[in-house]
Design brief:
- The chain has 202 residues and is of the alpha/beta class.
- It contains 8 helices and 5 strands; from the N terminus they run βαβαβαβαααβαα.
- The protein has a single domain, classed as 3-Layer(aba) Sandwich (Rossmann fold).
- The N and C termini lie far apart (41 Å).
- The mean pLDDT is 89.
Amino acid sequence: MRQKIFVIGFQKTGTTTLEHALERLGYRVYGGDKNLMKYEDKDALKNYIKNTLKNWDAVQDMPWPLFYKELYELYPAAKFVLTIRDTEKWISSVVKYFAGIRFPLHRKIYGVPCAEGYEERYKELYEQINQEIIEFFKNKPNFLIMEMGKNFNYETLCGFLDIKEIPKEAFPHARNNNKRKLPNYKLYRDLRSIYWNYKMNY
């Protein structure tokens, strides 16, 4: 069985880029799982995680960062990668992407209706969890921080994973499929939020 790899950074910190990179290296990557938020009993939660990850080598996306302790208890020899970026750049990206859409999962995580208009709460939790993760893994050799714009590359990732053959191509970059500047405009974000909230009955 391959060594597990857990990407425990928040959304919009390059987690999808890491997913593509890990897949390029041959890992099977599992995405976000809202079912994690349903469990109040810790043993039931750990059983769910263990059963879910039987056929996966790695995970990324929310709400996995909230369960780093359970992941470590289950897989203490796994590799843990915290992806981060500047807080103001992070919240700007989050607001542009999620706007005022009232995702139930986000409401459970942040305790507020949506990203836009509640930026301070989003930033507070983002910084709090990141700091808790850093403190928890302090001096542990199976932990790596990858910061967008600084060490997002195959050399860093492969070195951490003890992979000798480093891909020669450029590190992948997740692209916004929309390829547009419209999310920069609040009116557009408001209209998009109204549409999705109505369509999904949020």
